[in-house]
Amino acid sequence: MASITLKSSLIKGLMAGLASAIMNSALFYAFKNLGAINDTVQIMPGEPLGVHNAIISSIVSSVLASIVYFVISLIAREAFRIFQRIAWFLLLLSFFSPFLFIPEVPVGYAISLNIMHIVVAAAVIYIMKKRIPFLG
């Protein structure tokens, strides 16, 4: 079992969250300018998707993933391999969420959201695997 600490895992989660939040903010505005994301589609009644939703979702998802990685590392020898498989599986499941939870979502809008899901998953998987020198 690996010597992964909760602190290092959470720091990596925040790093992944910040990186994916920055990338997803840029993607949000790009998709909005292209017309793929618009204010007519509402993610909750009376609330269109805003950049703040992308930022919060990126950070919260990454931190939660880091906690899951830490828990897996406590009980499994090949924690990263298991974590990576779970992350890819959850990414695949997330591709259905725009179609299931946003009424009458246009395909371009859903694809835009799914690209942002890929960014978060890729950032989390990449940073969780990296050895960060100041984390030991």
How would you summarize the topology of this molecule?
Layout: H1 6-34, E1 42-44, E2 47-48, H2 51-75, H3 79-94, H4 97-101, H5 107-129
Antiparallel strand pairs: 1-2
Helix pairs in contact: 1-2, 1-5, 2-3, 2-5, 3-5
Q: Secondary-structure element order, as H and E?
A: HEEHHHH
Distance between the termini: 16 Å
Stretches with pLDDT under 50, minimum 5 residues:
none
The overall pLDDT, averaged over residues, is 93
| C-alpha Rg (nearest Å) | 16 Å
What is the overall number of helices?
Answer: 5
Q: For the report, how would you describe the main beta sheet? A: 2 strands, antiparallel
- Give the class from helix and strand content and strand pairing: mainly alpha
Brief rundown of the structure:
The chain has 5 helices and 2 strands; from the N terminus they run H-E-E-H-H-H-H.
Describe what this molecule looks like in 3D.
- Strand 1 (42-44) and strand 2 (47-48) form a beta hairpin.
- This protein has one domain.
- A two-stranded antiparallel sheet has the order 1-2.
- Helix 1 (6-34) runs antiparallel to helix 2, helix 1 (6-34) packs antiparallel against helix 5 and helix 2 (51-75) packs antiparallel against helix 3.
- It contains five helices and two strands, in the order αββαααα.
- It has helices at residues 6-34, 51-75, 79-94, 97-101, 107-129; strands at 42-44, 47-48.
- The longest helix is centred in the N-terminal third of the chain and has 29 residues, at 6-34.
- It is mainly alpha-helical and 136 residues long.
- Helix content is 72%, strand content 4%.
